[in-house]
Amino acid sequence: MSADLKPHLTRDHVLELLRGMIRIRRFEDKCAELYTKEKIRGFLHLYDGEEAVAVGVIPVLGPEDRIVATYREHGHALARGVPMTVTMAEMFGKANGCSGGRGGSMHLFDAARNFYGGNAIVGGGLPLAAGLGLADRMTGAKTVTACFFGEGAVAEGEFHETMNLSELWDLPVLFVCENNGYAMGSALARTEAETDIHAKAAAYGIESEVVDGMDVVAVEAAARRAVARIRETGRPHFLECRTYRFRAHSMFDAQLYRDKAEVEEWRQKGPILRFQTWLLENGLIHDEDVAKIETEADAEIAEAVEFAEKGEWEPLEDLTRHVMAEERPAPPKPPTPSGEMEDTTYRECVKQAIREAMTADERVFLMGEDVGAYGGCYAVSKGLMAEFGEDRIRDTPLSESGFTGAGIGAAAAGMRPIVELMTVNFSMLALDQILNTAATIRHMSGGQFGIPVVIRMATGAGKQLAAQHSHSLEGWYAHIPGLRVLAPATFEDARGMLLTALQEPDPVLIFENVMLYNMAGKIAANAGAVEIDKAAVRREGKDISLITYGGSLFKTLEAAEELARDCIDAEVIDLRSLRPLDEETILASVSKTRRAVVVDEGWRSGSLAAEVSARIMEGVFWRLDAPVGRVCSAEVPIPYPKHLEDAAIPEVPAIVAAAKAAVGKG
Questions:
Q1: 290 falls in which pLDDT band (50, 70, 90)?
Q2: Residues designated as active site
Q3: Residue 204 within any structural domain of the chain
Q4: What span, in angstroms and rounded, lies between the C-alpha atoms of 74 and 54?
């Protein structure tokens, strides 16, 4: 080992190591006390016994390096330099906390210190860290991302997906497993077929080692080697730090799964006691040094508690802040019509938007399964790899949670990824990353971090793909605060909505109906970005409002023409944006026509159609001349036989019948 990679055990350095661990331990003890006094609420996971890991690893990192922590992250935050005052205030939930009081104990964030927060989902931070590393890999940055997690996370699919991606793509990430022997209350031997955790990472080809996590010097030495190696090679490194938590999993935990003798045995080899004893025995420090450290820590803690106690609660009127960015780009201005039209397809419109965005902004890249030579499931990106290369048209393994999380992490680092999920069904495998990371980080961090990622996926039925490839689940995602959800139906929207979405500071999900990809027609040669917040009136009418989106738009327009032959003048509203909904356009139309039918390819129960109907009832109930009708998919998994599939989803006859019933001509 070269001299610069060894810890230099000068008096100043050993005092700093000891000070860091004592400071964390005493902070945790105070938090436990405050929890019993109900000053700190929720889940409280304490770090007692694991201090050597945070203190041994984090000071080795530079200020530009990033940290992704887990829900037991107080020690990581303090070791990173997050002030104890704002850390404690966050534990209280006060507005002067490091996350504005919105994160609490499990979600400490500090953008100024590149502290990307704790994550309450076991293993959930791993793909995020991979994405931060991916951004560094793609931009040529020499920074390192350190990701902390417990041994319980190695049973999660996200662990294995992230290990594979990190080795496959040579991502500069230091993975630090704090193996404390228990995943909540389950001993490692009861939950893992292979208890040698570093071997799991090594199986993917990642350089990996085990270190005594109760020895702060050993941890620091391993961290120095690992970080230097990552900076040299740009490749991942894995540290398994074998440690032990002295307290229960959380303050809710009765800790019936281990006896007191076991805990006491580990306490006798705890990192603070062990290091302090060795330093005193070898004359490197003296009793008065320890006393001074403890006195200073207690004073800092007292100041932090006072700071938290005096902090203000966020006012109720700020409840909805930091769900989405407070500042957005101005809506794009439509280009002056050139009069020149060109032949196109829906598929080609999406491809052209990707091409245009990637040409204009080097931060934009596309990732997903088979998006390269194959062009993705519906050949949208076919040919783009030859234009932009394998780095920016990035084929992924079949690991939806892993690569979606990586896209989210890359977005958090400033890239503009387009993540393609083959079908909406597969998005269920990435739901954790979409819901618990992309949609929540801005809120949990008090607005410090945004996730400007675009996630595209095919949706809908009609191609006889049977139950597992024919869902319309966009209404589920429209339920989630923190997301924008789009459903482009026209050529102009297929091209323009994607271009606009890539300028948004928050995550945008785009649902492309499978039945539209082959649709052919003409588009203005200079068509470009379009606004994404407003519904569109696709057909003017006075007798009834037909409200729909996506693949059902053209069926609804056809139904409107059939209704016209029976002297029913239907207005057709294309929602376009499913979250947020454009209530103004919806209610203005229904106020005029006094009747409405909502057409939605989702299932009727809990559907987006139900939400639109409820908004109409709340907004213009007294102007209605008939109940709001709904045409939705039947309450069955979508069948394979064509005649049953057609019967299961909204079709023109059902839309016509519902409209006639609403106007009294059924």
A1: very high
A2: 400, 469
A3: yes
A4: 10
